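Progress note, sequence design subtask.
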């Protein structure tokens, strides 16, 4: 009789044996073909892959002045598989001028896969960065006593001037996010963190080189593998020429000392940013070396936010500078003509609503209304546009038409400047007010936007761009701070014209109004005999002291510079905005300040508002 139990047992034993064989085959396959551990171990014994870092691209101002360059520096690297704890720790620490506690903590941090996710005991890890020439010389003499430790030569950034920190940015060690986003980087590498150093990182960084060195059984370097045929040389980064005029930038930073605010100057025909000042600022030279982290932390904790680039991140009510955009819109839409006059009896009065204004002649047509900065005129213009049912079927349709004009002038969205962190500002539309007022609103509800108050918020860059657009009589080129990248053309974004919805005739009348404001209106302090200035003041309402604003350009017929000045808590536009703007235009157009203007600049340099006055 057949024994089925024995047959079943034989099948079970055979199956177990087959499974064991399969497991061994899979494990062998994994170890030999898929695992990198043994390959890394073998390679680390035979080869030393030495990274050669490229020189980072240099940065010049528009006139060829060197602004950012490189200095040699040295990093101490360690390969844990070679170090193995066999060095004289005390002598090592004494040689580098560090404490034993620092040494132990640094070694623990390197091996901590949470803090250092890319850790491998077979590859070089950064132990200490940015040694000076003197520190390196001391260490090099004793390096043979510290197996597993190597020196890696690289360069660090140096900033020639204490200016333009927000434009230039800085360079620091990569974060894990940087490594995850781009496999070019390894732990210990450096990357641009802010400004053009960040925006143009790929152009500035260049390409790394690799030397493959052959080692003997004791780990001693014997020379280049295959006589260096597999080595690659580093490729230097590309140089940048900025559009910034360093002398103009320096003057702007002087004039805003002790004040909170911004100055942005643009060359209208090209969109090149001539100066970008944000105050308070800091010295970019403090963001270099091993003290960078400490200094950066202090700036982060500063209540006046010196790290904030107010020129592109500050959101402000534009005040009366915004009236120029309203005149362009109302005229092009046929709401007003050059001869349309509105009464203003110290303000706009209608159905119990009052918007105040200063004393001036009344009624006024368009050009004098711009020159005297009449609130009543522009309130009436917006009210008549929003209530015109022959032209717009609903207030929502009128509002969205208004919004389209504003967007075409560069408001409400990022302009696209070649700097990280730009804010878009706020230009409301019909949906915004429908949500805010449950669909029940009209021109009187939103009347304050006609004079650059209420919900409207712009960056100083957008206000300066408005000046450039008016100077060009109807178009702008996206503002940019880099004039030239070595060996490659600029992005077409920075060479293309953007035309607004307003008519050329409307621009001619606005230019006439801005010129009249300088000759006999609110901008008289900017008037000169050697070139014609056009300007518009703004006094932006604030919970405390009003903000002082100026927007203008010069010369009138062949504009070379358009400018926006915004001084927080500076009072009337004529108090700070106009004189500072006038000095900046003189410096750029004439190449220097007259003795009288230099004396005036010194006075404004030492005036203090806000954080400056509290620090005296």
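Output:
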């Amino acid at each position: 009789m057949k024994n089925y139990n024995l047959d079943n047992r034989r099948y079970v034993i055979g199956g177990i044996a087959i499974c064991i064989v399969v497991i061994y085959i899979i494990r062998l396959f994994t170890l030999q073909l898929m695992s990198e551990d043994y390959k890394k171990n073998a390679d680390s014994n035979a080869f030393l892959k030495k990274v050669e870092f490229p020189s980072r691209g240099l940065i010049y101002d528009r006139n060829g002045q060197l602004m950012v360059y490189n200095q040699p520096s040295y990093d101490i690297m360690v390969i844990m598989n070679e170090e193995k704890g066999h060095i004289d720790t005390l002598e090592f620490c004494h040689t580098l001028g560090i404490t034993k506690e620092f040494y132990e903590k640094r070694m623990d941090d390197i091996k901590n896969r949470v803090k250092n996710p890319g850790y491998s005991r077979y590859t070089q890890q950064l132990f200490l960065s940015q040694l000076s020439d003197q520190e390196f010389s001391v260490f090099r003499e004793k390096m043979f006593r510290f197996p597993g430790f190597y020196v890696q030569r690289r360069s660090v950034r140096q900033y020639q001037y204490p200016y333009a920190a927000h434009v230039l940015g800085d360079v620091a060690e990569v974060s894990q996010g940087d490594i995850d986003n781009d496999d070019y980087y390894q732990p210990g590498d450096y990357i641009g963190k802010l400004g053009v150093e960040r925006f143009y990182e790929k152009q500035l960084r260049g390409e790394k080189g690799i030397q493959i060195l052959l080692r003997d059984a004791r780990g001693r370097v014997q020379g280049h593998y295959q006589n260096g045929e597999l080595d690659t040389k580093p490729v230097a980064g590309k140089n940048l020429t900025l559009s910034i005029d360093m002398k103009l930038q320096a003057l702007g930073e002087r004039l805003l000392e002790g004040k909170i605010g911004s100055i942005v100057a643009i060359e209208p025909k090209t969109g090149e940013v001539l100066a970008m000042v944000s105050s308070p600022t800091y010295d970019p030279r403090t963001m270099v070396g091993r003290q960078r982290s400490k200094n950066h932390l202090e700036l982060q904790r500063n209540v006046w936010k010196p790290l904030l680039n107010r020129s592109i991140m500050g959101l402000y009510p534009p005040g009366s500078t915004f009236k120029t955009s309203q005149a362009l819109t109302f005229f092009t839409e046929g709401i007003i003509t050059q001869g349309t006059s509105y009464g203003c009896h110290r303000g706009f009065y209608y159905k119990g609503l009052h918007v105040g204004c200063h004393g001036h002649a009344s009624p006024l047509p368009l050009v004098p209304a711009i020159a005297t900065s009449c609130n009543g005129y522009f309130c009436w213009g917006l009210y008549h546009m929003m209530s015109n049912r022959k032209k717009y079927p609903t207030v929502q349709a009128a509002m969205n038409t208004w919004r389209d004009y504003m967007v075409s002038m560069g408001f409400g969205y990022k302009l696209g400047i070649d700097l990280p962190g730009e804010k878009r500002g706020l230009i409301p539309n019909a949906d915004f007010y429908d949500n805010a007022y449950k669909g029940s609103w009209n021109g009187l509800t939103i009347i304050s936007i006609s004079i650059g108050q209420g919900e409207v918020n712009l960056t100083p860059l957008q206000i300066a761009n408005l000046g450039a657009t008016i100077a060009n009589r109807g178009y702008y080129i996206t503002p940019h701070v880099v004039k030239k990248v070595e060996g490659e053309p600029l992005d077409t974004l920075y060479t293309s014209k953007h035309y607004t919805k307003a008519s050329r005739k409307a621009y001619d009348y606005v230019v006439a109004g801005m010129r009249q404001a300088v000759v006999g209106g609110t901008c008289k302090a900017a008037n000169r005999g050697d070139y014609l200035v056009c300007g518009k003041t703004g006094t932006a309402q604030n919970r405390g002291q009003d903000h002082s604003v100026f927007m203008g350009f010069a010369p009138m017929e062949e504009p070379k510079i358009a400018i926006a000045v915004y001084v927080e808590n500076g009072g009337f536009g004529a108090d700070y905005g106009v004189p500072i703007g006038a000095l900046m235009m003189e410096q750029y157009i004439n190449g220097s300040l007259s003795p009288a203007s230099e004396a005036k600049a010194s006075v404004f340099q030492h005036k203090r508002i806000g954080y400056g006055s509290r620090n005296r």
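The two ends are 112 Å apart (CA to CA). Work on this subtask will continue into the next period as scheduled.
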